[in-house]
Structures are given as structure tokens and as C-alpha cells.
């Protein structure tokens, strides 16, 4: 029997999609079942082949201590302005709880101390931002797979959404009570300061025109979204979610994760571009579809026109 159930699942998913039943009597597909279901969600053939060749259970390169960059440049939000976040940070995140819910059998919440007691994985990897910079860092955290297994996915589960604490493009007036998953946010086209990205293709014209992302813009964003602040969020499929290097990290380079890099918990999704690496993660939500979240494209930057699948 194959020792690579996910590969088998991918192949089986392809053949199933083509109408050929090859499942036979294989009994190693329990976990792979998720992967196959994900593949039926209409991703195109190119993505399918790319995933099969490049990312299926393959590990991102890992480096040694000597390779660690002396400075890991923070990018995007570096200090969330939200009051609720500031209150957590002030008390060194003792009141922080990671929430895991959505399409799971047993939703749960874990404190940072509880997360730190779970089996951890450490990896030294290179982060690549589409803006054209890279940095190598050492990350320690909990494999996302362990958390998802603990929660138990429901049959409809297809994607994992990461809700973050930082409201985008505003100056701190948000009361921080919204959960960031508000459905009908309005159009929001400006790139926050420091995130303007000339390399990416935007769907909408003029997306880079408003560089001023101060408090004024904040109130516009809030108004445009019917009063709901637009928080950073990201989503991944189950193949990436169960990848061994996909972790929720609480340490960077052997220290507690700094606020600038996403304290207290951030996603490390190796082999994916920087914007998928959600910082300030407060809630993990398992969903069947992300069409109802934000503007429906699967992430804050995706809603601005960036690719949902950002594999490298
Ligand atoms: N919550 C949140 N996560 C985020 C961002 C952000 O602004 N907010 N920026 C993204 C981008 S574009 C990059 S390159 C990385 C930067 O991670 P770093 O600050 O540790 O360098 O975080 C990603 N995750
Ligand atoms: Mo980035």
C-alpha cells in the first residue's frame, strides 16, 4: 500500500473527476479524503498540476541557524491599532485565546500557555514577500494539523480561514469587538502604507492611487463596510492546512514572537508568499466556502485582486 496517501488521494481525485473510479479497496484514504474533496471544488487544471508536482507533501527548504537573517523585516501591520489587541498585548497576552471553530465537531479555545504545552515544530525557512524582499527566520509553533485533528473536521470542511486581530487602514478608533468575519464589507482599494505592491496584478483599476492610509481612510473603510471594520484574514485549503510545515508559530528566532511579526500567534505556511502568512491570528474557522467572508476572495489581499493560491 502506498506510503504517500496524499499523493494517492490527489491522483484518485483526478481520476474521480474524470469519471474513472479507481478507489478499489484502499483503506489508507481516511485522511486523504479531505484532500480529494478539496480538489473537487473547481480549481483549474493548471493549479491542480502545479499542486501535484510542487507542493504535495514536499517540504519547503529548511536552513541552519547560521542562515537566519539578522533582521526579519516586519511588513504590513506592525502594531495593530485595535483596542482589544492593545489590551491583550499590554498584559503580555495572558488573556489571549485562540479560537478554533466552524465546521468542526469540537470547537475549542486555547491560551498561549496551553498552546505552548502542545507538541511543537521548529523550522528555519525563507519568507518571500511579493514586494521583492526575503528573510530567513526560525519559527516554533503548533502544527495546524494537530489543532484540526483535535477539533475534528466535519464532512463539509474544505478550507481553513485565519481571522486576524488587526483592522486594516485605520488609526486605532476601532473598538475591536468585531470578529473580522463580517460579510459585506465595501470596496477597499488602497494599499496600506508599506504594502504597495507594483508586482501584483490588480483586478480593479486605480488600486494604488490612494497612498494615504491614515485615520481619514479608516473612517471611509468603516463606512463603506456598513460599520464593520475590515480585518486582515487569509484562507488555505486542507492540503496546505495538513502540510507538516504549516504551523501556528508563537516563537521567532527562539524568542516570543514580537508584536511587529504577529504576536502572539501567526501562521507559517511555507512554500507560499508572504501575504498568506497571517499574523495576529485570533480565530481559526473551518469552512466549506469563503464566499461569505470579506469580499469573498479568500483573504484581505485577495479581495484587492491578488491570487488566492500563492504557492512558490
Ligand atoms: N494580520 C496580518 N497578517 C499579515 C500582514 C498584515 O498586514 N496583517 N501582512 C502580510 C505580508 S504582505 C507579509 S510579507 C508578512 C510579513 O510578515 P512579517 O511582518 O513577519 O515580516 O505578513 C503577512 N501577514
Ligand atoms: Mo508581503
Description:
By secondary structure, this protein is α+β, with helices and mostly antiparallel strands. It folds into two domains: 5-55, no CATH class; 65-304, Alpha-Beta Complex (Sulfite Oxidase, Chain A, domain 2), CATH 3.90.420.10. The protein is built from eight helices and ten strands. The chain has helices spanning 5-17, 32-39, 45-55, 83-90, 112-117, 144-151, 215-224, 238-241, and strands at residues 97-102, 108-111, 121-129, 133-143, 159-167, 231-237, 246-252, 255-256, 266-269, 281-287. The strands form two sheets. The chain has a five-stranded mixed sheet with strand order 2-1-10-5-6. Strands 3, 4, 7, 8 and 9 form a five-stranded antiparallel sheet that branches. Helix 1 (5-17) packs parallel to helix 2 (32-39). The radius of gyration is 19 Å and the shape is globular. The chain starts with a helix and ends in a 25-residue tail after the last strand. 42% of the residues are buried. Bound molecules: ligand MTE and molybdenum atom. Molybdenum atom (MO) binds next to loops.
The portion of residues forming beta strands comes to: 15-25%
Give the biggest sheet: 5 strands, mixed
Radius of gyration computed on alpha carbons: 19 Å
What is the first-to-last residue Cα distance? 30 Å
Give the number of DSSP strands: 10
The CATH topology of the largest domain comes to: Sulfite Oxidase, Chain A, domain 2
- The fourth-level CATH homologous superfamily of the largest domain is Oxidoreductase, molybdopterin-binding domain
Count of helices?
A: 8
CATH architecture of the largest domain: Alpha-Beta Complex
Q: Average pLDDT across residues? A: 76
Q: What is the ordering of alpha helices and beta strands?
A: HHHHEEHEEHEHEHEEEE
Strands ordered across the widest β-sheet = 2-1-10-5-6
Low-pLDDT stretches are 1-31, 172-225
Q: Fraction of residues in helices?
A: 10-25%
* CATH C-level category of the largest domain: Alpha Beta
